[in-house]
Design goal:
The protein has 108 residues and is an alpha/beta fold. The chain has helices at residues 17-20, 33-45; strands spanning 5-7, 26-28, 51-52, 59-61, 65-70, 85-89, 98-100. It has one domain (5-107). The protein is globular.
Length: 108
Amino acid sequence: MEAFIAVHSRNPKGGDWSKAGLTSYFLEKLFSKNAFCKNYFINQVSAVHHVTSPKFGDFMMDVAYVFEVGGFSKTTDQIQGIPNAYLALDIESENGKRIPLWLFGMLY
């Protein structure tokens, strides 16, 4: 069975996802858990917040918070030294800067 999902890509027109909308996404034929997690995050958060692509990290919310999205094994190495940076991960409960990805579904 093949799954088609929208995956995260950098917006070449300045990183503004709210203006780019789904046209800045492309379809990927093979299932990718990382792509699914990023797609879930952007769909839930962009409904109520302004989301852009920062220089470091995957997404910036309201020009204040940086999020790196991924699986449970991702470490804080990628957000080290970035103020207001957090990991949105496929985990069950919060632990420091590690936020469960499912919690972002409560924003929608």
